């Protein structure tokens, strides 16, 4: 295959999967900038195996891409010290946290709340909101029933509202 | 906060946190200019080396 054809095929994959994979990586790591770096690593692997990618049937391509992304996230989490706060720590429970966030916008607060979510909930939330993926598809990729995905999504929304002081 | 207002806020958060087109284009450019590290080629080279060792070992044993 000529390089131009490879690039065209790569672009097609990139356009289709950049947002879902970014959303997944954001959910796995809780860090937007790390997710961007990992996305690059994932697509370097894809580009290096573009012939293999193109030989896959469409139904096998998506799981293959998400496996590469999952492995990239696992490697990253293994190699970096844990910097995310402990799960269950609440933003609005103490006044000193309140003082820390007074200068922040509500959007920054949402990012902080998302970062503090348990990984499973965060991944479902980012795949749904940023990746615009339906619950069934998220469930298939994460190996969970769609009902569980919907429950986690609903809990994530509740948590954001609660921690924004909405309840 | 009404559901409508909350959804609007999430939509704003989404717009601010999606992979932006400029960053997406940078990543694409970096990927397409990255050096090729072909895993398959590496394994083939290892296999070739192993085959050579086995062949010479067999030759030693038969001689």
Summarize the structure in words.
- The complex is a heterodimer of chains A (167) and B (63).
- Chain A contains nine helices and no strands.
- Chain A is mainly α.
- Chain A starts with a helix and ends with a helix.
- Chain B has 63 residues and is mostly helical.
- Chain B has helices at 3-17, 21-32, 39-62.
- The interface between A and B is medium-sized, with 30 and 24 residues.
Briefly summarize what is shown:
The complex is a heterodimer of chains A (167) and B (63). Chain A is an all-alpha fold.
> Mind summarizing the main beta sheet of chain B?
none
Instruction: Kindly report how far apart the N and C termini of chain A lie.
Output: 58 Å
Helix/strand-derived class of chain B? mainly alpha
* Strand percent estimate of chain B: under 5%
The stretches of 5 or more residues of chain B where confidence is low (pLDDT under 50) are none
Query: Using only CA atoms, what is the Rg of chain B?
Result: 28 Å
Secondary-structure content class of chain A: mainly alpha
Number of E strands of chain A: 0
Using the alpha-carbon principal axes, give the shape of chain A. Answer: globular
Average pLDDT of chain A works out at 88
Give the number of helices of chain A.
9
